[in-house]
Specification:
It contains four helices and eleven strands. It is an alpha/beta fold. The strands form two sheets. A six-stranded mixed β-sheet has the order 6-10-11-9-7-8, with helices on one face.
Length: 252
């Protein structure tokens, strides 16, 4: 009986050892699977994170590009404007700055033949002739009392004191003469000229005054009064009214 019981105990222990071995083998097989599973999940999470970062970068780049595009459009729209039928563009010259020289550019269609340029219709032009205003035409606080008339000849007289007292006199007279030359008007100086009652020529007198303004005193005669060397303001107002009339004629 003792031997039989001993054999049963030994057999039971062997079975226990075999079961322990099987459990150990099972754990060894299961651990790599669990590690592999965790590694797989880790790779998926890394890929998701990388894709999210890439998406965010692309979104930022897209927003940046759209911002640049909108900035260009808004800048262009703010730098261009139309006032009373005349188109202008704000142009800054910063070569000698700061501060930059701010100008207001407009143009007329012309035909250029050699050194001569004359006004043309938009359909027949071969170039655009640019004029640069120093003052914003929308803010030129200069009264124009009268009606502008054109003629093939113009007498332009100016107070000689403007040459020595006003730095911008040269710019003002140069732009004024250039515009009317483009329009086919011959501009001369004649201090003895008087207002023609028949309006056969235009007479413009630039003189000092208590207020910068333009007044008509004959069929085609005008006084441009200049206060405190505001000669650019006065002449550019006259030029602007001229451009309004010219653009109206070109659109007919």
């Amino acid at each position: 009986m003792a031997r039989k019981r001993k054999k049963e105990i030994i057999k039971k222990r062997k079975q226990e050892v075999e079961e322990l071995k099987k459990e150990a083998v099972g754990r060894q097989k299961a651990e790599p699977l669990a590690i592999s599973s965790r590694l797989g999940q880790s790779r998926e999470e890394q890929e998701k994170a990388q894709k999210k970062i890439l998406r965010n970068i692309l979104i930022v780049i897209g927003i940046f590009m759209v911002g640049i595009f909108l900035f260009v459009i808004i800048s262009n729209s703010l730098s261009r404007f139309e006032y009373r039928g005349v188109n202008f563009e704000i142009v800054r010259f910063c070569d000698a700055g700061p501060p930059c020289l701010v100008t207001y550019r407009t143009s007329l269609p012309v035909k250029i033949d050699g050194k001569n340029a004359v006004i043309s219709t938009p359909s027949e032009k071969n170039a655009d002739y640019n004029f640069y205003f120093r003052n914003d035409p929308r803010k030129l606080n200069v009264d124009f009392n009268g009606t502008l008339r054109f003629a093939s000849n113009m007498v332009l007289n100016a107070d000689k004191n403007f040459d020595s007292l006003c730095e911008e006199n040269g710019v003002a007279s140069g732009n004024f003469n250039l515009l009317y030359r483009i329009l086919g008007t011959k501009v001369i100086r004649d201090e003895n000229a008087t207002c023609d009652s028949l309006g056969r020529y235009v007479l413009v007198e630039v003189k000092s005054g208590n207020m910068t303004k333009i007044e008509q005193f004959g069929p085609a005669c005008y006084n441009i009064y200049i206060k405190d060397c505001e000669i650019l303001e006065g002449t550019e107002k006259f030029m602007f009214e001229t451009l309004v009339k010219v653009n109206e004629a070109l659109k007919e």
